[in-house]
Amino acid sequence: MFSHTEMLYVKMALLHIVRRKGRAALISIMIAISMIGLLLMEGMYEGMMVQITQNSIKTGSGTVSIQHKMFRSDNNIKYTIANPYKITALLDSKKEVESYVMRINQRGLIATAGYSQGVNVMGIDLEKESSHAKLENFIIKGNYNFNKNGRGALIGYRLAKKLKVDIGKKVIVTMQDTNNEVVSVALKITGILKTNNMAIDSNGLLMDIERLRGLNGIQGVTEISILLHEQNDDTQLIHSLVPKINDQNIAVYSYKELYPSLHEGEAMMQTYSRISSSFIFIVATLGIFGVVLVSVFERVREFGIMMAIGTQFHDIARLIIYESLVITMSGYIVGALLGGGLLWYFKEFGLDLSGLSDAFAIFGMDSSIHAILKREYFTSAFISVLVATLAATIIPIRTLKQRNPIQSISEQP
Amino acid sequence: MNFLTVRNVKKVFNEGSESQSNALMGIDLSIGKEEFIVISGPSGSGKSTLLNIIGGLDAPSEGSVELVGTVITALNENDLALFRRENIGFVFQAYNLIPVLTVKENIEYVMRLMGIPQSQCDARVLEVARELDIDTYLNKFPDHLSGGQQQRVAVARAVASKPKLILADEPTANLDTANAQKLMELMRRLNIEEKVTIIFSSHDPMVIEKARRSIVLRDGKIIEDTVRS
Known about the structure:
By secondary structure, chain A is an alpha+beta fold. Chain A has helices at about 5-20, 20-60, 85-90, 125-130, 155-165, 200, 210-215, 235-245, 255-260, 260-300, 300-310, 315-350, 355-360, 375-400, 405-410; strands spanning about 65-70, 95-110, 115-125, 140, 150-155, 170-175, 180-195, 205-210, 225-230, 250-255, 350, 370.
């Protein structure tokens, strides 16, 4: 693989590093710490974003949502999907689809003896939601049921707190039916949810879909919420569904359209991550540059001797690059191992921030953040370190190239 | 054809500035193969500058140098490095060994650059090291050797690759009399046995008298060029 001469250069590079081990260790540690920071930042940020997105998608409108095209702008329940089973039959044949549920979403008013406020009433099928949004996992008090008679309701924990209601208490929910008549129903709270989706936690009341259908007299549903195996398959699914549904009144949305703030948040996080990475990259470049420059200037005489006895300049440049690469890549390897290990730990066991759970919930995050671990983090960091190392050696090598051997030999050590 | 021809070589340092100095003022010189030449003269006479230009380590301000049929003053830095590797061995006043390499690696360095197989390098290193009586230090690093030992290693490095020309710039300046004499005898022997052309600079009378041809420089000009019988 390496010629004898190449091996000699590698050996010389290693010996030079050993001679100046303190400085080499310093730069390696700097790269390793930067790597750990970079990996943790990327993995934790992405983990947080995925969590926020997943919390909103799962308990909200899904990765893809099918609605009447007017429903989004006018939350009137007259805008329903009249024949949802025609669409669900299509979804059954799509391998990208992990699960789907039908829901009725409606604005209403919730009242107790002392308080009242606007509420998002969601008509759901508990059994189907169990294998879709897995809502039972979000129950913090009470049970995941609507009572045997269907007169029970699940309520968001912030809404429960505001209304000062608890399990077993009754609330009155008032809505408009399809004829614009006001209808009311008394429901007993059976469970309190904490989903970290503010639409549910602060304003959500979940009741039996059939009971809701009976109350307001609608036949279809207002939404089909779809979860995909791969979130990024949303566009592909939408492109394949729209022509097959072939209904001018039906719209198929991606979560990116329904939750633009989530998408913007993701983009913002990515930009922030890139800026942070660039900052670390610049700092690392300057650090490596300083070390390489000093190391080259200390050995100008030695390089002059090597050139005098027949070493071509590109071999000297190669020696400098080898040395720099050994130092920075050892830092990269240590950083990748430690940072990767930490990310793996946080991926598996999460970072517990229970003390901040209420504050995090406002942003749609759980109290435990699970990191994401991707190969791209390591490859992009590797490329950054490689580019930083090569960039840092350019000026020292150019400075050396401007001298002839005798000028270099005359240099005082 | 001469082995080495120096034509009207001039060297001006700091040209155009107040500190301008004319180190060489039109040197013309012809040197044949296997000559053993000393260039002498007082400090600042231009001895080192002339050797550096002959060896392609420095470029003249004017004039040309032709060595073994190649006008080296017309070569670029890369080709010059290759030319030096193939044709010239250097012995410097300050030894100038590579500190991170062992004695053996220093001696075989040029041969390795030339792509000579390791087994041949090993054999040649041993041969030269025995001849220079440094075969017991081969695995030591230069900073563990005395000045005289380091200079012998430098000579070994210069001759190991069998160059056509050895240039030695005041090789005995840092050595005591006994070591200086030994070194001169050694170089004389190499000149005869290995048929290497040797040009060295010195202002030490003991060293100067060993040479067969003596060139004296003063103020950048040759003022004397004598061949001893």
